[in-house]
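[09:14] KT: can someone run the structure on this one? pasting the chain below
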Amino acid sequence: MSSHATVSLYHMIWAHYRLPFLKVILLNLVNAAVSVGIIAYINHTFISQPVFNTLSWLSLGQFAMLVLLLLVTTFVSQYALTRLGHQFVYELRNKLVKQIIDTAVPQIDHLGSARLLASLSSDIQSITVAFVRMPELVQGVILSVGVAMYLGWLSLPLLLIVMFWIAMTIWISTILVKHVYHHLRAIREIDDALYQDYQSIIDGRKELALNHHRAEQIYTHDFLDHAKSYKERVIKSDTYHLSAVNWSNIMMFAAIGVVFAVSNYLGISMGIATTFSLTILFMQSPLLHAVGAYPTLQTAQVALDKIQSLELADYQPAFRTGNTSQHWQTISLTDVNYRYNVSNNSGDNNANDVDDVDAQTLTAKDSGRSSDILKNVNLTLQRGDVVFLIGANGSGKSTLAKIITGIFTPTTGTVNINKQPVDSQNNADYRQLYSAIFSDQHIFKQLIGKQGQQPDESLVNAWLHKLNLQDKISVADNQLSTDKLSQGQRKRLAMLIAVAEQKDILLLDEWAADQDPAFRRVFYQTLIPELKALGKTLFIISHDDGYFEHADRLLLMKEGRLIELNAEERQRASADAISMLK
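[09:31] RB: done, structure tokens below
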């Protein structure tokens, strides 16, 4: 997991985009210089003239050119900053998705899809909005500095008084904005809860249709509570924000009165006072936009903090797609233990995998203690083996499958390939040996062949017929026409995808459980021999005792311990597997 401390949005921009950002600052300095030049030109050419009749067409033409130059420099500076901002968001989104791909499955299980989707949507959107508004803040700050320098040249005492007035205005605005930030953080937490509600309502749509009491409960007590909290928080946030903007707006107008009152008291000329007043009016919009943009930057910082709190893997631009273990002969597990630890929120157990959570584990979850799901497991797989694994629900079968495939890492003990330990350095490479169809498999509609190449078309077409999918599915440009099938047919479709990958090892978690009796027979009597003929090593979780004869080896998982059955035990299991599970 990433060990980097939380960094601010500003630090990240400065660390990774320093040169482009300095270029943007330079462009804004040019824009500020042009703006100050226009103010100075108005002061010395228009305000200083005793009557307007003395103005020449040349003066008006020069003024028009300055306005045109201001238009160009404003556009260029804003475009440069907007482009930089969206480039930052583009790279942040790309890195976040790659980090999710690279992060260990237990951590992703622990975070949950709702929280990840909230970051990919709400958090990225918040950062995007901040960068859209950032030009207003940057230009407002730089323009204020440039204008202040010019006004100080005209009258330093008057400038100091005006600056004190504006500083007081901004100070009170900042106090109001702090309340905005407080509510924004709360809103972001509520966002996670709302996404969880959305996911429950969408994923549980069938169950809710059958039980309106449950539907009413989740709508009234979960969703509406969170929606109401969100509404109350966002109203308070917007109220403080509007108060800050309105306060700043009114006080800027009041500053004009302060300018004339102080000018009269200090004996400053009417021309200078008028220039100060016009400048304040000129600066009112940039300053207000800058004040208005600041909360969006705070929202972006909240979003960035939320992304960093996910504790995803460090960003690595490359994918480790090589496979240096192609010539493997044995894979062995030595004294493997796997522990689900609730107290540290490791999330190593996936609550969606029922087999991973037995009564003992659930008790441990309730009490906050640890529980060993796997206990001193020893196993050696030979290349070409057809291995069946049986076991009661909660015995640890699915956890063992994820240990074998490298998706989970043993708490203690080792996984070895050709007697070489599988560790953090080679685990990604080791996982490339496997295709797997888990009970909660996801169907990808794009077929991929060996080592990421184009799939073997003849192989795909042959297995479409073997799996009896030729009338349900068509393949064009390596793309499946649909995945809207029954559960059993979806499992067959997953088999087609796995065969097309041409990996050495195929792991099947209760694959046949969703097949009709006729195709279940086809699977055991026809497909398994054909998969073995393709050179595959098969690890199959199954309870179909009538077909155990098709396994080279039969394993039993019982209360986290693995036992290999001998010939006599296999006969008993084939006659009555249920009795072996007790």
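[09:33] KT: thanks! The radius of gyration is 34 Å.
[09:34] RB: yep, looked fine to me
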